[in-house]
């Protein structure tokens, strides 16, 4: 069986791809002043009282059992709040999704639901957060004007730029966000770790994460019969950039056009500290699946390198590693 994209990268970069890279770089340079303006003038969501502040944990759990269901694990707890039940691998002491939401709320201007309560049960968490009124981008996108679509793409680029400025400390392990420094590493959950086995780790360090992917890449190359002296053996997992906070599940179903006119980011269950190009790869994965993405639109696909950065080489590397991620430990 031939190896997909087995030609060395230098030979694969056709003139068309090179032109695409140049165009993306030019567009990014032109857009950067606007992105900075968006970040400067964006207003941080104001803290306010919630309609669950007076409820006890027991009262919230009781309401959760009979509240109307929005999604399989999300219920409309009150007119202004929802409650989400989550089970995190390893049964950690605190919720990584709530930790990520609190970090984003405190250190960026990205509109995210405000966490109002986290209730730890035996094997799960119930996260109570604000209900965001408005349609998802998946619902609204087909009827938006071209100008509105471009403005959303620009805003999304500014959000991702803010996210990726939140760098992990050297002591922070890759993966889900811990509440306190020094907590043990947690299992990573993302389709990038394999569509059939998306839970991997935990990885105590960035080096361990790199070694895992490089080991899987070697297995994949051997599976396709690539010789030991092939140049492909020298292409390694890209760990040259620091670990940054990534949402890891950006798709139109997780973006809400709020009634307040802002673009909100929801569903942070897969978020964590990863290489910045993981954001690009996860958006690519989502865009390829119309059911997950909510629609198929060439403009949205073209916008991904503009929003996340140009990571064509990493995408090719992951395409070769994919088979091994799916079928090997």
Your description of this structure?
The chain contains eleven helices and ten strands. By secondary structure, it is an alpha+beta fold. α6 packs parallel to α10 and α7 crosses α11. The longest helix is centred in the N-terminal third of the chain and has 27 residues.
Number of strands: 10
The CA-CA distance between the termini, in Å, is 22 Å
Task: Characterize the largest beta sheet: strand count, sense, and whether it forms a barrel.
Answer: 4 strands, antiparallel
The percentage of residues in β strands lies in 5-15%
How helical, in percent, are the residues? 40-55%
SSE series: HHHEEHEEHHEEHEEEEHHHH
Low-confidence segments, given as residue ranges, are: none
Topology:
Layout: H1 9-12, H2 15-41, H3 57-66, E1 74-78, E2 81-86, H4 96-107, E3 115-120, E4 125-130, H5 137-140, H6 146-163, E5 188-189, E6 199-200, H7 206-223, E7 244-246, E8 255-257, E9 263-265, E10 272-274, H8 277-287, H9 290-293, H10 298-308, H11 312-327
Antiparallel strand pairs: 1-2, 2-4, 3-4, 5-6, 7-10, 8-9
Notable traits:
single chain, 329 residues, alpha+beta, four-stranded antiparallel beta sheet, 11 helices
Short description:
With 329 residues, the chain is α+β, with helices and mostly antiparallel strands. It has helices at residues 9-12, 15-41, 57-66, 96-107, 137-140, 146-163, 206-223, 277-287, 290-293, 298-308, 312-327, and strands at 74-78, 81-86, 115-120, 125-130, 188-189, 199-200, 244-246, 255-257, 263-265, 272-274. The longest helix is centred in the first third of the chain and has 27 residues, at 15-41.
């Amino acid at each position: 069986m031939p190896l997909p994209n087995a030609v060395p990268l230098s030979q694969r970069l056709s003139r068309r791809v090179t032109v695409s890279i140049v165009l993306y770089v030019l567009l990014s340079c032109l857009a950067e002043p606007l992105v900075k303006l968006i970040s400067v003038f964006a207003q941080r969501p104001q803290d306010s009282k919630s309609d669950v502040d007076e409820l006890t944990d027991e009262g919230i759990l009781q309401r959760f059992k009979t509240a109307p269901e929005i999604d399989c694990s999300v219920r409309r707890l009150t007119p202004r709040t929802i409650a989400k039940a989550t089970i995190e691998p390893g049964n950690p002491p605190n919720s990584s999704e709530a930790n990520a939401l609190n970090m984003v709320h405190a250190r960026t201007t990205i509109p995210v639901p405000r966490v109002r309560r986290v209730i730890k049960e035996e094997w799960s968490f119930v996260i109570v957060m604000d209900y965001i009124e408005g349609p998802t981008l998946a619902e609204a996108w087909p009827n938006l004007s071209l100008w509105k679509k471009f403005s959303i793409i620009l805003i999304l680029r500014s959000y991702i730029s803010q996210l990726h400025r939140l760098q992990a400390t050297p002591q922070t392990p890759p993966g889900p966000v811990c509440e306190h420094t020094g907590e043990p590493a947690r299992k990573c959950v993302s389709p990038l770790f394999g569509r059939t086995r998306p839970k991997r780790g935990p990885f105590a360090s960035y080096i361990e994460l790199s070694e895992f992917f490089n080991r899987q890449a070697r297995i994949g190359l051997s599976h396709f019969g690539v010789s030991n002296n092939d140049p492909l053996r020298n292409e390694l997992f890209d760990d040259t950039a620091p670990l940054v906070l990534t949402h890891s599940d950006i798709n139109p179903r997780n973006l809400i056009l709020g009634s307040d006119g802002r673009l909100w980011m929801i569903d942070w269950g897969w978020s964590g500290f990863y290489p910045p190009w993981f954001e690009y790869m996860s958006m690519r994965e989502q865009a390829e699946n119309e059911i997950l993405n909510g629609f198929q639109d060439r403009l949205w696909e073209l916008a991904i390198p503009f929003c996340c950065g140009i990571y064509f080489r990493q995408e090719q590397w992951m395409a070769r590693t994919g088979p091994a991620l799916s079928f090997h430990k």
